[in-house]
Structure formats: C-alpha cells, structure tokens
Design goal:
Blueprint lengths: L1 E5 L19 E2 L2 E2 H12 L4 E4 L11 E3 L20 E5 L2 E2 L2 H9 L5 E5 L4 E6 L2 H16 L8 H9 L13 E3 L5 E2 L3 H16 L2
Helix pairs in contact: 3-4
C-alpha cells in the first residue's frame, strides 16, 4: 500500500497568506504536511509519495512525484500512481491521529472513502482499474457539460450509484470522521483550526 499525499493544487483561495503555501503552514510549530508524514511514518513503513511540481515538497521520508496531468481538479488523483494498493490523502487536511490509524488499518475490497458531511479527506483503493473508470467517467461528464464539478464527491457518487451532481449525499463505502479532521482552503479555515487546537490544548 502506497500513501499518496496530494499537494499539487493551485491554492487560489489560500493566496499568499503568510507568504507560505498552505501545506507548510505551521500548527503547533509543525508544518501541516510534515505532520501528516510524521504520523503516517509512525504507523507504517509503506512508501509515502507527495504529488507536487514544487521541489520544496521533497524532504526526508517521502518521494515527490510530478503529475503528468494537472488540468482539472479531478486530476489530483494522479492516474499514473493509481494501483490496486494505493491510498490518496489530502495535503491541506489536518488529520487526527485516530483518523489516520483507521485509514491505515482498514482493509477494503475495492474502494473506500473517508470524510465529513462537507469534505472527502481520504480514499483507499484496492481496485485501481475500477477507480480509474469512475475518475474518467466523471471527467468526461464534466468536459461534456453534463455536470458542474468533477472532484472527489462526484467520483464517490459514480462509484456507489448516487445521481452525480452537487448535492452531497452519503451512502455505502463511506466512513464518517469527526469534524476535528479539518481541510484548510482559506486563511479563515486556518485561523478557525488554530483556534480549535488552542482551545483543546487549554482544556486538557
């Protein structure tokens, strides 16, 4: 099982906040993406890959991969890395230790998703061809103008047979996680998470 941390997005909503890419924003003194790598490394000896065209994302304990295609948001699921043993994680997500432990330990037969009722934060794949099929199906539907978005939610909808669109509906093969697993898209998201972590620390 290889763990692929996706970090090749454009980050338009983040901008140049603190002159730092959001994946490297510090939480309790540790860059977000390095925290994810550290937690994973404590749980598994499997390969960890970060997808990015930025050489700064190459550091100890990981292999950086430059995706061949990064045109649409759905292309974050780097096709050439998909196999029967891969797990996609998000470089801009703050994962609790418990959540990552569950993802690493979980044994799915085909594809399984993790997330909240607002965000998908992890996808574990045991059938690479099936995953590629649904990615390509959603991508083509978007390019044909049949749907407005082509992100992880639409791939999930296609996989479980839910009508593909913008309405979020959770069915099978989806593990709900607590809301303290938090994806960071904007400076406001970061400040909210930072405040949440400080409040938790002060209550201990």
């Amino acid at each position: 099982m290889k763990y692929i941390i996706m970090a090749d997005g454009k980050g338009t909503r983040w901008g140049d906040y603190k002159e730092t890419p959001k994946h490297f924003i510090a939480l309790q003194g540790e860059p977000l993406i390095k925290r994810t790598v550290r937690l994973l490394r404590d749980m598994t000896n499997e390969e960890i890959i970060i997808t990015s065209h930025n050489p700064n994302y190459e550091f100890e304990g990981v292999r950086r991969h430059e995706p061949k295609n990064n045109t649409l948001e759905i292309d974050r699921f780097t096709t050439e890395l998909i196999s029967n043993e891969c797990c996609f994680l998000y470089g801009d997500t703050y994962y609790t230790k418990g959540c990552l432990e569950q993802i690493v330990a979980y044994d799915t037969k085909t594809i399984c998703f993790w997330g909240t009722d607002k965000s998908i934060i992890g996808i574990k794949v045991r059938d690479g061809d099936l995953f590629k099929y649904h990615i390509n199906k959603v991508r083509n539907m978007y390019l044909e103008g049949r749907i407005d978005n082509c992100i992880g939610w639409q791939v999930y909808q296609s996989y479980v047979g839910i009508p593909i669109g913008n309405q979020i509906k959770i069915g099978t093969n989806f593990n709900l996680v607590t809301k303290d697993n938090f994806d960071i898209n904007t400076p406001e998201d970061y400040m909210k998470l930072e405040s949440m972590i400080k409040n938790e620390s002060s209550s201990i």
